[in-house]
Amino acid sequence: MLAEELVHQQVAVIAAPSAAATLAAKAATTTIPIVFAVAEDPVKLGHVASLARPGGNLTGINFFSVELVAKRLELLHELVPRAARVAVLVNPPVGWSDRAEKELEAGARALGLQIQILNATSSREIDAAFAALVRERVDALFVTPGAFFNGRRVQLATMAARHAVPMTSATREIAEAGGLMSYGPNLADAWRAVGVYAGRVLKGAKPRELPVEQASKFELIINAQTARMLGLTVPPMLLARADEVIE
Prior knowledge:
four-stranded parallel β-sheet; Rossmann fold; alpha/beta
């Protein structure tokens, strides 16, 4: 609805900060420039013809969240080696894909972990997911990327603390709210890049002439305060690799 309203208003450019927003904008217009920020390969998503030559009216930023799924699982295993069963919190409509699930399953097999997928599309369903993981005696929680969970980071951190569940995520915002650890691109940098591209479009550049940018900076954030609360000792090698340690 919002995308259609923007098209009706004949805006000069649409900034789409998620996969869902990009899909809505793409369905609403083939002429108004769209600058996106997406976690998956935009070529495979069908947004652009290629990274170097997008074609059409879309271009933007790819920040590789799906490609980092296995790495996040590996880091969680390193920090919480006792964790054998890991719950994976997923927002099915926009925050997950078959490719991401395959990456996760492959990473879990390599580490000898069992995974349990829990879906949540509302705050109430997040509460229900935590009730399920406690009932199933899951050892840790893996929160998949997406604006939905990022916007509910305080609820996630509060529930994880209440049930003493080690929680890892893709964004530093969740770690700052009280999650145990995050690994992924700096979203502020991604949004800034979207703004820069939107500015170039407003000055006359065509999306098809602007190559899709790929995130190149990834940061590991460890919340040492949460680790202490959970009775975890962060391995020195992991601390040394952290870009930031929250005390």
